């Protein structure tokens, strides 16, 4: 169902925000420790220091906010990557951006003994940028230049390379494994609110930048020659879009590790709802991405209770069939 009028899209956006807020509330309420909606409300209005109130305030609230921010960032990053590359399979996970950021974090811990959360943020950004540059460079080789298929193959190769490097470092340095294992699993369990606040300024800038770039991306999607004919500096638009993607993907990995498939699934759902206008695709991708990761995280708490499945496993269960469907559907229909 496509929302055709701007009024319908705006109404859908408002409803999406309400669903996102409801999902955040549900993430705060549901889990292994039995709590209720009333108890969650009283935590913020009549805090009494009980075990349930402590869990809600110190663990579940930060977990819910991190899931919403990371999911939104990955959804928007995927939409930007698919628009920039004209590739329906483009996402931070498939193109090796997540793997690059993850490898740089492991290298920082293993080789340089870095433990600062703020340092992890910059290391993740650097890893994401290096991986994105390598994929773009390799995908541009050849007579035909940059093509969706070559980008996908280059991304898969670079993701495998960085993953292999990561495993190699962890085999050499087992102490590093203990420090970064929760990152590599792609999980938001046990994350503290300070981890989100350390990257939130960069994510916030990237969210705003994506909205400001939306109309320019619409023009660029018509073809580079058309965009240049309309006076657009396509090189500048591509560079700014790439920087925005790096901020979004790098920030998300710095907090939650390499969570995959949200960047693939969400942009397609957004386009199914609002069509091809990126002024609507990007905000819908952010909202839907946050909702998906929140719901996946809630589900992960109940699969093997009392233990928890990493949320990256849940997103993979959702995203893998969708990835196969899009791949079979064909690039030309993106």
TrEMBL record:
The keyword Zinc does not apply. The keyword Transmembrane applies. It comes from Bacillus timonensis. It comes from the Bacteria. This is Iron ABC transporter permease. It is found in: Cell membrane. SUPFAM superfamilies: ABC transporter involved in vitamin B12 uptake, BtuC. The chain crosses the membrane at residues 12-32, 64-84, 90-112, 119-139, 151-172, 193-214, 239-269, 281-303, 309-327. It is a multi-pass membrane protein. Keywords: Cell membrane, Membrane, Transmembrane, Transmembrane helix, Transport. Pfam families: FecCD (PF01032). One of its GO terms (molecular function) is transmembrane transporter activity. GO terms for cellular component: plasma membrane. InterPro entries: ABC_BtuC-like (IPR037294), ABC_transptr_permease_BtuC (IPR000522). Belongs to the binding-protein-dependent transport system permease family. FecCD subfamily.
């Amino acid at each position: 169902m496509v929302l055709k009028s701007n009024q319908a899209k705006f109404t859908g956006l408002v409803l999406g925000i309400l669903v996102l807020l409801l999902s955040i509330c549900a993430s705060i309420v549901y889990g292994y420790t039995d709590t209720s909606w009333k108890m969650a409300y009283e935590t913020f209005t009549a805090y009494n220091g009980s075990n349930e109130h402590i869990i809600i305030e110190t663990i579940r609230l930060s977990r819910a906010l991190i899931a919403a921010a990371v999911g939104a960032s990955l959804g928007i990053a995927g939409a930007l990557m698919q628009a920039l590359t004209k590739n329906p399979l483009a996402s931070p996970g498939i193109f090796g951006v997540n793997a690059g950021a993850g490898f740089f974090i492991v290298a920082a811990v293993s080789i340089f003994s870095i433990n600062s959360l703020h340092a992890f943020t910059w290391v993740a950004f650097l890893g994401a940028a290096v991986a994105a540059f390598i994929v773009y460079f390799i995908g541009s080789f050849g007579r035909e230049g940059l093509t969706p298929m070559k980008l996908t193959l280059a991304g898969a190769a670079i993701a495998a390379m960085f993953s292999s490097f990561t495993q190699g470092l962890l085999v050499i340095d087992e102490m590093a494994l203990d420090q970064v294992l929760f990152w590599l699993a792609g999980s938001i369990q046990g994350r503290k609110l300070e981890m989100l606040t350390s990257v939130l300024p960069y994510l916030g800038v990237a969210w705003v930048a994506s909205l400001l770039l939306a109309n320019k991306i619409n023009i660029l999607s018509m073809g580079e020659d058309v965009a240049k004919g309309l006076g657009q500096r396509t090189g500048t638009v591509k560079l700014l879009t790439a920087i925005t993607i790096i901020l979004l993907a790098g920030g998300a990995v710095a907090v939650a590790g390499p969570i995959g498939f949200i960047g693939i699934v969400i942009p397609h759902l957004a386009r199914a709802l609002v069509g091809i206008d990126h002024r609507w695709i990007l905000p819908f991708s952010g909202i839907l991405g946050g909702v998906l990761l929140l719901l996946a995280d809630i589900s992960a708490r109940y699969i093997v209770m009392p233990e928890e499945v990493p949320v990256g496993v849940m997103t993979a269960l959702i995203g893998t069939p969708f990835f196969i469907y899009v791949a079979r559907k064909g690039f030309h229909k993106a």
